[in-house]
Amino acid sequence: MTFYILAALVIAAFGVTYVKGYDLVKAKFPGYLPTFYLVMTTIRMLTVLTIIGIYVLFAEEREDSIRFALTCLCMYVVMMVVTLKLRH
């Protein structure tokens, strides 16, 4: 259960960071928006995959690993959709 809370907090933190960072980059350095988007997307994806990988390594049952991975991926997709809708 702790990993679910950790994953949700990390994904939410990256969502807030993206929204705030997007506003800052757009206001001060609009030419860097594509770079900002690429970097943030890469960092978010690698972080989520790392969290899933760590859980899979330490999980005792395969079903728990699958359930956790699907939950994290769903949270990631929802976060991507919400942040893109907020900024575009």
Estimate the strand proportion: under 5%
The rough form would be described as elongated
Order of helices and strands: HHH
Domain unit count: 1
In helices, the fraction of residues equals: over 70%
Number of helices: 3
Average pLDDT metric: 89
Which runs of at least 5 residues are low in confidence (pLDDT < 50)?
none
Oligomer designation: single chain
Q: What is the rounded distance between the termini? A: 34 Å
What is the tally of beta strands? 0
The computed structural class is mainly alpha
Estimated radius of gyration: 15 Å
Main beta-sheet annotation: none
Q: Please, could you describe this protein's structure?
A:
The N and C termini lie far apart (34 Å). Helix 1 (2-28) runs parallel beside helix 3 (62-87) and helix 2 (33-58) packs antiparallel against helix 3 (62-87). The mean pLDDT is 89. This protein has 88 residues and is mainly alpha-helical. Helix content is 90%, strand content 0%. The longest helix has 27 residues, at 2-28. It has one domain.
